[in-house]
Amino acid sequence: MQFKHAPAAVSAVFDDPNLVSAAGLVPMLRLARSSALDELAQSRLSVPTDKGANAGGKVMALVAGMLAGADSIDDMNLLRHGGMGRLFDRTYAPSTLGSFLREFRFGHVRQLDAVASRTLVNLASAAPLLQIRDGERVMVDVDDTIIEVHGYQKQGASFGYSGVRGLNALVATASTSASAPVILGQRLRQGKTGSPKGAARIVGDALATLRRTGVAAGARPLLRADSAFYGHATIGTAIKAGADVSVTVRMDPAVKAAIATIPDDAWEMIEYTDSIRDEATGQLISKAEVAEIDFTACRSRKKAERVAGRLVVRRIPDLNPAQAEQPTLFDTWRHHAFFTTTNTDDMDTVVADKTHRAHAIIEQVHADLKAGPLAHLPCGVFTANSAWLVLAVIAFNLTRTAGIIADRVGRLARATTATIRRTLIHVLARLARSARRITLHLPEAWPWQNAFTQLFTITHAPPPVAAV
Q1: What's the CA gap between 142 and 316, in Å, rounded?
Q2: Rounded to the nearest 5 degrees, what angle is found at the Cα of 8, between the Cα atoms of 5 and 11?
Q3: Are 352 and 320 in contact (CB under 8 A)?
Q4: 14-23 mean pLDDT
Q5: 56-95: buried (b, 16+ CB within 10 Å) or exposed (e) per residue?
Q6: Taking Cα atoms as reference points, which of 209, 147, 200 lies closest to residue 386?
Q7: DSSP string of 404-430?
Q8: pLDDT by residue (tens digit) across 303-322?
Q9: Rounded average pLDDT over 331-336
Q10: Does the pLDDT value for residue 367 go beyond 90?
Q11: Cα torsion 42, 44, 47, 49: sign
Q12: Are the beta carbons of 245 and 235 closer than 8 angstroms?
């Protein structure tokens, strides 16, 4: 592509009051209102003083800024250009929104948690966020991540397990084989906090939210987590809430002793990195093998709190790169084990291992959030940053819903937030008024015109007529 005009023939002037750079905010905020986000925030948030007035409108403004790409308080100026004031009411100044967030305390963050969970339940009723096939489970994944911050002004920031200064965000997601993840629960913690701290409450809240959506009514959800969450608090909470677990275990003496009792003929090859199939026999040739053995977790607890299940073990050869050309006298292996309460009839050893490895999908959610509102935490006040995380989760779930509504069977249904923002939100439009109506004139031949039209039409449909 080349520029077709001489430089002297082109100029730039910021003087059009009828242009907006993010026309996609119109259907997005209609979707947010249909999920009662503003009403829930207005009725449940009790932020004090005049800074907490009109909480519903301020929450909507903060979420709208995040949908448009804001990752700081100053970026909320995205809402105050061109014809945005003609399209939306109460486009607050960034200073007003920052003052609102800084008034939050822990109780207000928990109130906002309740708003986020109820908004997700309403979104799930508007679009098939979690599509479950016959015999399938909903996968609930829990993991934490460090959000790096800079300077000494951030409350709670410290050096954690990652070795960088930051704050710790714990997130719980739900997904299926046919649906991209949505976020069920979240919590911001100090940077030095250990991964399992408070995980039991997040697991309980997440499973309660999933249950209220009604999508997992026919099958037990499966909680997946890494070894940091292997303990009675997390496992016991999940089982009490009606879920099965699949949690990586630490190589303690009890686990090593159980692995040593697995017979040699119990190991089965699996499809793993660089695995191939023999063209003649069709058998899988792989360096990875799996086996399982009955196991009881939480043995140090009293008898009523012990959990019976299976220990699924994956082993791969432990090779010394310095002696790769010289074979050893006997094979040595590296073992990776996880504990699961799933039934063998539902998931055999190979399926259970493959299902557990898919837990890595939550890392994509972490990356998605950090590529948007969580690029950095914008405030020095810890509770304000906690509220910022909850608002980022609400924006994430809104974009996930919009992608499904706009393109249910296409790639937008599983697209990242950045893709949704680029295709459906950041659409330039010119406002035209006639007969008390506003028309958005959008770019001709926009590649995602059909998806945008679908989203706009559905979100602007009149409410259903109540049955008499």
Answers
A1: 26
A2: 85
A3: no
A4: 93
A5: bbbbbbbbbbbbbbbbbbebbebbeebbbeebbeebbebe
A6: 147
A7: HHH-TTSGGGG--HHHHIIIIIS--EE
A8: 888 999 999 999 887 755 55
A9: 81
A10: yes
A11: positive
A12: yes
Q: Which two tokens stand for residue 343?
A: 């039934």
Q: Report the alpha-carbon distance of residue 32 to residue 122 in Å, rounded.
A: 10
Query: Which residue, chain included where needed, has tokens 């906002």?
Result: 112
Beta bridge partners of 290: 268, 314
C-beta of residue 381 within 8 angstroms of C-beta of residue 188: no
Partner residues linked to 223 by β-bridges:
140, 245
Chain segment 277-307, per-residue pLDDT in tens: 766 666 666 778 899 999 999 888 888 889 9
Torsion 99-105-108-114 (CA) sign? positive
Closest to 406 in 3D by CA, of 464, 449, 461, 443:
449
Tell me which residue has tokens 């299926």: 176
* Type of residue at 348: D
How far is residue 352's CA from residue 438's CA, in Å, rounded to a whole number? 55
φ/ψ of residue 439, rounded to 5 = -110, 130
3-state secondary structure of 264: helix
Alpha-carbon distance values, 259 to 3, 89, 206, 344 (Å): 66, 63, 33, 18
Beta bridge partners of 431: 440
* 3-state DSSP assignment of residue 151: coil
Q: How far apart are the C-alpha atoms of 255 and 310, rounded to whole Å?
A: 11
Residue that is written with structure tokens 């009790």 in the block: 46
Rounded to whole angstroms, the Cα distance separating 229 from 425 reads 37
Quick check: 346 and 292 in contact, CB under 8 A? no
- The residue written with tokens 């399938």 in the block is 136
Query: Where is average pLDDT lowest: 132-136, 280-284, 426-430, 443-447?
Result: 280-284
Residue type, 294: D
How many angstroms separate the CA atoms of 384 and 396, rounded?
Answer: 18
How is 59-75 classified by DSSP, letter by letter?
Answer: HHHHHHHHHTT--SSGG
- Give the Cα-Cα-Cα angle 375, 81, 455 (nearest 5 degrees): 70
Start-to-end CA distance of the chain, whole Å, equals 60
Q: Report the alpha-carbon distance of residue 136 to residue 254 in Å, rounded.
A: 32
Distance CA 317, CA 272 (A): 13
Token code pair at residue 381:
């006040």
Contact present, 215 and 137 (Cβ < 8 Å) = no
Paired with 389 in beta bridges are: none
Of 291, 288, 225, nearest to 258 (Cα)? 291
Supply 460's token pair: 């602007």
